[in-house]
Design a protein that fits this description.
The complex is a heterodimer of chains A (352) and B (78). With 352 residues, chain A is α+β, with helices and mostly antiparallel strands. Chain A is 26% helix and 22% strand. Chain A has helices spanning 14-19, 37-42, 67-80, 104-112, 144-155, 203-207, 234-238, 278-292, 301-307, 309-320, and strands at 22-28, 31-36, 45-47, 53-57, 87-88, 94-100, 129-130, 166-169, 183-193, 213-215, 222-224, 244-255, 264-265, 267-273, 332-333. With 78 residues, chain B is α+β, with helices and mostly antiparallel strands. In chain B, strand 3 and strand 4 (70-76) form a beta hairpin. The chains are: A alpha+beta (352), B alpha+beta (78).
Amino acid sequence: MKDKKNREIKYDHNLEEQKRPKVEAELEKGKKEVFNLDQLKSGGYIRQRQKDLFTVRLRCPGGRVPFKKLKKIAEVAPKYSKKDYVHISVRQSIEIPYVHYNDFAQLAEDLKMVDQKIASCGPRVRVPTACSGCEYNPNGLVDVQKLCQEIDQKYFGIQCNHKFKISLSGCPIDCFRTNEMDLGFQGAVEPIWDEETCTGCRICGYACKEGAITNDPETGKPAIDRSKCLYCADCIRACPTSSWKEGRKGLIARVGGRHGRHPVNGSVIAELLPEEKMGSVIEKVIEWYNDRGKGRGRVRIGDILMEKWLDFVEFIKPVLGEYAVKNPKKPEFIKIHSFQSGWMPEERKFQE
Amino acid sequence: MEEKKPDATLDLRGVVCPINFVKTKLKLEEMNKGQILEIVIDPGEPMANVPRSIKEEGHRVIKVDKINDHFRLLIEKA
């Protein structure tokens, strides 16, 4: 059978496209417009090496795709993709590769039937990512899926100087790498001990992976070193008499991280922040970024934070209130290319 | 308070995670509600995980004793 799919693509039109940066495309039925390639990228249509072909990134906040949408995507993708697969992006979105720009409108129309939206790329708040959270993951402490959908509804697509990635992890294992995000939130629970019901069984001391809990050699009663506690709730889950109980529950907030060529480790700015305050923190961080980033072009928030850290700390303090970390450390580069020398991030100057 | 007499005993010394918990779980399934299972487990990882898993299954760890290098747990079946 002569399959029109899976053809070998012989030419790399990447360079040619630079000279022909505009295409006439129809993103919505009946509305033909001339776009430059950056505009298409912003709309979630990502240019490929192959001439006129694009990867269409779908909006899948938190990587949660209802069967109804998944079925539709599986039905529609083969109609427009010139290959026989979808790609799952590192940010949990389904991408349909090898789509001709003439098919954009029809593809979007088909997906609209199940309310499946196209995502986005470029300098803006991206689709947030999240783990399954406390809903069914035994380690999860906070319902980060709920928070993720909330972020997607309210903040997705807001223009910024550069990309702005938000991610959420339900617990301190931090599978969703909140330290590598422009803004990250991670679930946390403070353990509280009730002496009266404690039988001194020592299970908590064994359950604690951080060495924060030590049990008295005589009585077995625990003492906790708060400076070592990660707020993971292992002690609470293990305690047979429920003498370890949940205290304050909330979010660890990190800002200024990123991955890429030269990753930056984001800074913890708040601990046990109540969920209800998350929205105002997001708004304030973006407000600061957009203000301090004015006229700076493509620059990530982490870079501006490293320059104006104290300014940021002062700015954000009122929103964080009592949950603010005292004297937070500014974001720092993580060296991952150990073989490379001569690249000194500390001394790097910004190009205008 | 007088200690309840165990209805069954499992010696899980040298049995690694999660086999120790699986054996505990299977034993408990054979038993009746309110009966007591006595298990002996190693310190370290077993002690960090087994009591938590028992609790998550809804059973109650009613007593923990340290015997030399090992731990003896009394579990009441839920």
